[in-house]
Amino acid sequence: MMKLLLVEDATIYLILLQKLLENDFQITLSKNIADAKEIIDDQDYQFDVMLIDLITEGAMDLIRQIKKNKRLAPVPIVALTASDNPKDLIQAFDYGVYDCIQKPIYEEVVLRRVKNAANNYLRLKEINQLRESILNNQQIDELTKIYNLDTAKWLINEKLNENKNGTKILFLFHLKGLKETYLQEGKMRGDSLVKEISDFISMNFRNIDILGRVQEDEFICFVNHLMSKELANLRKEEMLRLFRQKKLSDISENIELEIGFFETSQEITYESMYQEVKKSIKNSQD
Fold first, then answer.
1. Confidence of residue 139 (pLDDT cuts 50, 70, 90)
2. What DSSP element (H or E) covers 266?
3. Where are the beta strands (DSSP E) in the chain?
4. From the CB of residue 63, how many other CB atoms can be counted at a distance below 10 Å?
5. Rg (CA), the chain
6. What pairs with residue 173 in β-bridges?
7. Fewer CB atoms inside 10 A, N or C side of the chain?
8. Which pLDDT score is estimated for 88?
9. What is the mean pLDDT of residues 173-184?
């Protein structure tokens, strides 16, 4: 059950809110700011949302204290207010309040907004935990030391959600002839070429770009910085030129590097971008 801190000094509202929310929340009650501050300082308490009446004397000081508390600062605060003055609402939001509900209250509005605030916070916690798990578990391709498919896909979709209408570019690199190289020259030689070409691709992009090995003979790079379509095409041609030079010395003659990219400013998923860039490589061969 989600955990709620309720700070309300008016007994009638305290009883009303407790009855309204008790089926969905484990509620910690406080009728004054002094008690609330003690609760905030107690490490044993953790909350998913807080409901604070701004009329309660010292409420703004309490909110300031909460936002300085590293453990509780991310927890959303829903404020109750009797004021309809826009300046008061702006001040509350400036202090870090997540949402405001004006009195007199409508029970369904209070319930929905408090639950929404708590659910959004829990989703954010889940995303952050997943991100931390990915980084801590080093979910990378063992051979190339870059992201594997699942990790690269998840990270790219995260970036796509953050930048729904901005310019997005995904590169795809296909090592044509790699399977034949493994068969003819052996695993050691094949692995060596994969590692070398992975390093070659990595050197041509920034550290903030998302590079992954998505199949045995395929790499992708999601450009995580500003790049125009024209510049992406220049990058592609320059990499092909450099690769042709490398083939003169230390790359097997059986290997060809195919490069495609897809650029869009529309809302899109990784899978759709990947399919589009696959088409671009296929069309260039026809």
1. confident
2. none
3. 2-7, 25-30, 49-53, 77-81, 99-102, 168-176, 210-215, 218-222, 256-264
4. 20
5. 27
6. 219, 259
7. C
8. 80
9. 92
**Tell me: the pLDDT tens digits for 241-275?**
888 877 656 677 778 999 999 999 999 999 999 99
- Tokens 């971008």 -> residue: 273
pLDDT of residue 176: 93
- Retrieve residue 225's tokens: 């910085």
Under DSSP, is residue 28 helix (H, G, I), strand (E, B) or coil? strand
Q: Which amino acid is at 121?
A: Y
Buried b / exposed e across 122-151, counting CB within 10 Å, b at 16+? eeeeeeeeeeeebeeeebbbeebebbeeeb
Q: Tokens standing for 27?
A: 């509620």
Most confident range (mean pLDDT) of 109-118, 125-134, 141-150 is 109-118
Cβ contact 77:98 at 8 Å: yes
Q: Between the CA of residue 2 and those of 28, 40, 145, 255, what are the distances in Å?
A: 11, 17, 40, 56
Rounded CA gap, 66 and 73, in Å?
Answer: 6
Q: Looking at the predicted structure, is the pLDDT value of residue 87 above 90?
A: no
d(CA 147, CA 169): 18
Residues in the chain, total: 286
User: Residue type at 243?
Assistant: F
In terms of pLDDT, which residue wins out, 177 or 128?
A: 177
Q: Is the pLDDT of residue 77 over 70?
A: yes
Burial 230-253, CB ≥16 within 10 A → b, else e: eebeebbeebeeebeeeeeeebbe
Q: Phi and psi at residue 249, in whole multiples of 5°?
A: -120, -65
